[in-house]
Amino acid sequence: MRLLNARFLFLLSALTLVVMLLNSPRIEDSADAASREIYLFELQQEESLDAIVRNDFFAGMMGDKVRLERGMKYCEDILAKNPKHAEALVWHGGGLLVRAVHAYTSGDNKTGDKLWNKGIEEMNHAAALEPQNIRVKIGRSATLIGYAQSGWDPSDTQSRVLLESALLDYEAVYRWQKPNFRDIPIHSRGELLFGLASGWSILGNENKTSEYLRLILKECKNSPYEVKARRWLAKKWPLVIQHDCIGCHV
Q1: Where are the alpha helices (DSSP H) in 22-131?
Q2: Residue 152 maps to a domain
Q3: Residue 217 burial by CB count (10 A; 0-12/13-18/19+): exposed, middle or buried?
Q4: Position 239 in a domain
Q5: b or e along 177-201 (b: 16 or more beta carbons within 10 Å of the residue's beta carbon)?
Q6: For the chain, how many helices (H) and strands (E)?
Q7: Is residue 207 part of a domain?
Q8: pLDDT by residue (tens digit) across 183-220?
């Protein structure tokens, strides 16, 4: 399973921006003071990881190999101390996919296949380690949906399974955020919902696709997302929704 389309690099960076833009999970009101302090400390550490590596990874996704390697090295240092650090693992897995694209582009398919498979393995492992971690879910899901938008082989069973798992995780993220969804920046709302609409359209699920396009009309009123959703709803099925991040810049 591999991708040679350069469009993937843009989609990957644009979609993965949602990782930082979505609100963090709320602390339950019933949590005791000690639990809240531990949670906040751990959250602060994770936000520090995002803040340190994200710009290097985004630059790497757009072709800057030096900055990509710097971000990868930071994650590798964390993983050397803690191989089960799920967020470092999902970032590193995404970086391996970018290395794979570079290898494919240079004609080295053997290396590309090795890197691609390892990257998918690391992201899956991260999700298994912390199945309730919202950043891990979004990082993995955004990457896989970006991949599917850029090049989709409907006969590839593995790709279909991966994409469906990514969409189910994105739906879980939406359920978690639903009570306070209107408080999330409209960019994050629109990208999450369009990611779901696009992914389900790729899998040929008309009902799910229409559901999320109509949800965009409700949750993203008077925005470019609403305009785009109305355009897609006016088209005849079957269709595959292509969506580039609105307002992103790396």
Answers
A1: 33-61, 65-81, 86-105, 109-129
A2: yes
A3: middle
A4: no
A5: beeebeebebbbbbbbbbbbbbbbb
A6: 11, 0
A7: yes
A8: 989 988 998 999 999 999 999 999 999 999 999 999 99
Distance CA 198, CA 144 (A): 12
Judge whether 240 lies within some domain: no
Say how far residue 170 (Cα) sits from the centre of its chain. Answer: 9
**Which of the residues in the chain have pLDDT under 70?**
1-48, 50-51, 151-152, 244-250
Residue closest to 101 by CA, chosen among 115, 89, 90: 115
**Count of domains in the chain?**
1
At 197, which CATH number?
A: 1.25.40.10
Share of the chain above pLDDT 90, in %: 47
